[in-house]
Amino acid sequence: MGQLDKSFAVMQFEQDIAVEVASIFSEDTSELLAELRQYVSRNNTIEVRELLHKLKGSVSYIGVEEDFRCVENAHAKIKHSGVDKASKELAILEKRMMHLIGVLNHELLQFNEQDEIELPENSFLLDV
Q: How far is residue 46's CA from residue 13's CA, in Å, rounded to a whole number?
């Protein structure tokens, strides 16, 4: 299953649980990025740091080390210099998270087509 297998290799989950975790991660991270954009536009360092802290936990759970380091870099830059000095780190972070969400969604759709896993009724993948 490609990238999804690599992402969950450390967790040794059953594939159906891995699919559910990836689905939740994708949905939650999309919402978190939308919130993050709002707080960055308001230059709200405290809220941005809190959201990045949440994101660090989620990304560490998925197990993609490069993306975790990216979140850590953005968090550290904001902690030491503020939101207004972290535009480069935030842009890289957003790009990496959107890429990860895209990879996970692609793998989830392929996995669903191959193995005919039934998605939950409220799954965002049903809209695709």
A: 35
